[in-house]
Amino acid sequence: MSASEGQRAEWLDPEFWERLDRLEGRHQRIQSEHDNARRGLERLTAREADELRRAWRRYCEVIAELDQTTAEFEALRRC
User: What pLDDT shows up at residue 69?
Assistant: First the structure.
Protein backbone atom coordinates (compact mmCIF):
# COMPACT_ATOMS: atom_id res chain seq x y z
CA MET A 1 0.00 0.00 0.00
CA SER A 2 2.94 2.35 0.55
CA ALA A 3 3.93 4.45 -2.37
CA SER A 4 7.42 3.74 -3.59
CA GLU A 5 9.97 6.50 -3.21
CA GLY A 6 9.65 7.31 -6.92
CA GLN A 7 5.86 7.58 -6.74
CA ARG A 8 5.74 9.82 -3.67
CA ALA A 9 4.72 13.37 -4.34
CA GLU A 10 7.74 15.58 -3.86
CA TRP A 11 5.63 18.48 -2.60
CA LEU A 12 4.54 16.49 0.46
CA ASP A 13 6.69 16.71 3.54
CA PRO A 14 8.92 13.62 4.12
CA GLU A 15 7.51 13.54 7.66
CA PHE A 16 4.09 12.88 6.11
CA TRP A 17 5.41 9.76 4.39
CA GLU A 18 7.07 8.55 7.59
CA ARG A 19 3.82 8.99 9.47
CA LEU A 20 1.92 7.22 6.69
CA ASP A 21 4.36 4.28 6.76
CA ARG A 22 4.04 3.98 10.55
CA LEU A 23 0.25 4.15 10.32
CA GLU A 24 0.14 1.50 7.60
CA GLY A 25 2.34 -0.81 9.68
CA ARG A 26 0.18 -0.26 12.75
CA HIS A 27 -2.98 -0.86 10.70
CA GLN A 28 -1.62 -4.14 9.34
CA ARG A 29 -0.60 -5.29 12.84
CA ILE A 30 -4.01 -4.44 14.32
CA GLN A 31 -5.81 -6.09 11.39
CA SER A 32 -3.83 -9.26 12.05
CA GLU A 33 -4.70 -9.12 15.76
CA HIS A 34 -8.37 -8.64 14.84
CA ASP A 35 -8.29 -11.66 12.54
CA ASN A 36 -6.67 -13.80 15.25
CA ALA A 37 -9.23 -12.69 17.85
CA ARG A 38 -12.11 -13.40 15.46
CA ARG A 39 -10.79 -16.88 14.73
CA GLY A 40 -10.47 -17.47 18.48
CA LEU A 41 -14.10 -16.46 19.02
CA GLU A 42 -15.23 -18.73 16.19
CA ARG A 43 -13.60 -21.68 17.97
CA LEU A 44 -15.59 -21.15 21.19
CA THR A 45 -17.98 -23.87 22.22
CA ALA A 46 -21.60 -22.93 22.95
CA ARG A 47 -20.87 -23.12 26.70
CA GLU A 48 -17.77 -20.94 26.40
CA ALA A 49 -19.69 -18.42 24.31
CA ASP A 50 -22.44 -18.27 26.94
CA GLU A 51 -19.87 -17.77 29.71
CA LEU A 52 -18.23 -15.01 27.69
CA ARG A 53 -21.60 -13.27 27.16
CA ARG A 54 -22.33 -13.42 30.91
CA ALA A 55 -18.90 -12.06 31.74
CA TRP A 56 -19.31 -9.27 29.19
CA ARG A 57 -22.75 -8.32 30.58
CA ARG A 58 -21.34 -8.21 34.10
CA TYR A 59 -18.41 -6.13 32.93
CA CYS A 60 -20.80 -3.64 31.29
CA GLU A 61 -22.89 -3.49 34.48
CA VAL A 62 -19.81 -2.75 36.58
CA ILE A 63 -18.64 -0.06 34.14
CA ALA A 64 -22.09 1.56 34.25
CA GLU A 65 -21.99 1.56 38.07
CA LEU A 66 -18.51 3.04 38.00
CA ASP A 67 -19.61 5.77 35.59
CA GLN A 68 -22.58 6.57 37.81
CA THR A 69 -20.54 6.84 41.01
CA THR A 70 -17.90 8.91 39.23
CA ALA A 71 -20.61 11.31 38.06
CA GLU A 72 -21.96 11.51 41.60
CA PHE A 73 -18.47 12.31 42.93
CA GLU A 74 -18.12 15.03 40.31
CA ALA A 75 -21.50 16.49 41.25
CA LEU A 76 -20.46 16.59 44.92
CA ARG A 77 -17.13 18.14 44.03
CA ARG A 78 -18.80 20.95 42.09
CA CYS A 79 -21.15 21.89 44.96
Answer: 96
* Domain edges within the chain: 1-43, 45-79
pTM: 0.57
Res. 13 pLDDT band, cuts 50 70 90: confident
How many Cβ atoms sit within 10 Å of the Cβ of residue 61?
A: 10
12-42 b/e with 16+ CB inside 10 Å = b?
eeeeeeeeeeeeeeeeeeeeeeeeeeeeeee
CB 24 within 8 A of CB 2: yes
